[in-house]
Amino acid sequence: MNSLQLKEVQNILGKNQQEIADLLEISKSAYQKYVYGEREIPRKIEIKAQKLLSKNNSSEKTVFGLNDAIKLIFDNLKEAEKTPFMQMYKETIEQRAIMEERERIYQKMLKSKQQNETQG
Fold first, then answer.
1. Dihedral sign, CA of 43, 50, 86, 37?
2. Is 42 helix (H, G, I), strand (E, B) or coil?
3. For residue 31, what are the CA distances in angstroms to 58, 89, 96, 102, 114?
4. What is the pLDDT of residues 24-50, one digit of tens each?
5. How far is it, in rounded angstroms, from Cα 98 to Cα 1?
6. Which domain of life is it from (predicted)?
7. 84, 91 in Cβ contact below 8 A?
């Protein structure tokens, strides 16, 4: 399993980084390092991710088939050609994390406002 596949598992399950890290029984920072490609994904994390997918009735074949094709293309690029793609991928993941955090804060504020309206 590579970083793209791990991120795809998160997307399919509809979880944010903290939620998927909790399900994998790792810290959020460890999860981020796996997704950003900064650390190799241990086999036990791969197995847990695959089990999460099978519990969710998702097709592992679809996830890994598409990402395997992307990985094959990526692996055939020269190192210098990979750098901009990795940077763009990392920035995209960071932007998504920011958006998820903003959504979480918004939902929390909305809930608080609704509670205040019912009390007042």
1. negative
2. coil
3. 21, 15, 15, 20, 34
4. 999 999 999 999 889 999 999 998 998
5. 25
6. Bacteria
7. no
Cβ atoms of 68 and 28 within 8 Å: the answer is no
> 16 by DSSP, 3-state: which?
coil
CB distance 6 to 89 below 8 Å: no
Using an 8 Å Cβ cutoff, are 64 and 16 in contact? no
**Looking at per-residue confidence, does 59 or 42 come out higher?**
42
What is the rounded end-to-end Cα distance, in angstroms, of the chain?
52
